[in-house]
Design a protein that fits this description.
Elements (H helix, E strand, L loop, with lengths): L1 H12 L2 H10 L14 H13 L3 E6 L7 H21 L3 E5 L10 H17 L4 E3 L7 H12 L5 E6 L5 H8 L6 E4 L14 H17 L4 E4 L3 H14 L6 E6 L4 H9 L4 E7 L4 H10 L1 H12 L1
Helix pairs in contact: 1-11, 4-5, 7-8, 8-9, 11-12
């Protein structure tokens, strides 16, 4: 049953008519737990609250189903405005983005122009931008663009997914760039030809890449709510004397609040991934697909 529900939500995440319907009705039925709001002001208010509790943030203006240059430009403009708002508010936050929302599926050149504009603005503020990894079809082109951007910018990082067979080699290849990586398990539905189908294998590979990247000496953003993985990372940094300023834990807005606060109290850096915007449906569906407990939360809200 869990697999059926997961597959259903992942399919809905890519459903454009459902996304348009969700935009019309706004954040309802529990989505506001995982999405800070629809405006930049909402996102900055959320950042201020998280900063006050000792947590830092990465903001993501949600955008999916970008099919025209105009839509890609609008998305890039929102990224620029988000960086402006972070700077003006003086809050502790950086930016995450998806390159498909910047026109990657329209043309590589369009995406590169938008990326350079965003990274230049971020650099002027002393800020950092993280490229979110998307589905496997975009993996190689995302890494290629990241490599090209790193020739010009040192304020950009990318995400690596543990469920892909290729990940160990990707981390080895990126070591020459001293890449700042966010390490995740992976949230898209992929073929067993390219990704581990069994959770146990994904978990084992996640541990492996945490160790691999930390021992390479590069900055690691360990993004997980799995306490077993968090404990494993703690053991690695203790065993090898890795200082706390060389890594951070990352978690999603609205998930595992108590664990986030506990890690802060223990002296670890915790960054919360805070999405906002009216194009929230695909993101929300993937959160439901990840954890059945999220579904029950939504159902309870629907019956209230």
């Amino acid at each position: 049953m869990e697999t059926v529900m997961r597959n259903m939500f992942l399919k809905l995440a890519k459903n454009r008519p459902a996304n348009k319907l969700a935009k019309r009705y706004g954040l309802r039925f529990g989505a506001q737990r995982f999405v800070a709001g629809e405006t930049i002001k909402h996102s900055i208010d959320a950042v201020k609250q998280l900063n006050a509790s000792g947590r830092v943030v990465t903001l993501d203006h949600l955008g999916e189903f970008v099919f025209t240059e105009e839509e890609a430009k609008e998305s890039a403009t929102m990224c620029l405005l988000t960086l402006d708002a972070i700077h003006q508010a003086g809050v502790s936050a950086n930016l995450s983005l998806k390159m498909t929302s910047l026109g990657l599926d329209i043309s590589r050149e369009l995406c590169m122009r938008n990326m350079r504009d965003i990274l230049t603005r971020a650099r002027s503020y002393g800020n950092f931008v993280r490229i979110d990894m998307e589905d496997y079809a975009h993996c190689q082109m995302s890494l290629d663009i990241y490599r090209e951007l790193r020739q010009e910018f040192d304020n950009v990082g990318i995400v690596i997914q543990a469920y892909l067979y290729r990940t160990e080699q990707d981390i080895a290849d990126l070591n020459e760039l001293k890449a700042n990586l966010r390490l995740v398990k992976g949230a898209y539905k992929e073929s067993p030809k390219v990704a581990f189908p069994e959770k146990a294998d994904v978990d084992n590979n996640f541990k492996h890449i945490i160790r691999q990247h930390l021992l390479n000496g590069n900055y690691a953003a360990i993004a997980t709510h799995d306490e077993t993985m968090i404990q494993y990372a703690k053991e690695i940094v203790r065993e090898y004397g890795i200082p706390n300023d060389r890594f951070e834990f990352q978690m999603l807005y609205g998930i595992c609040e108590d664990l986030q606060k506990k890690l802060v109290a223990e002296g670890y850096k915790v960054r919360v991934y805070v999405p906002y915007g009216n194009d929230w449906f695909g993101y929300f569906m993937r959160r439901l697909a990840e954890r059945p407990a999220n579904v029950w939360f939504v159902l309870k809200n629907m019956f209230k």
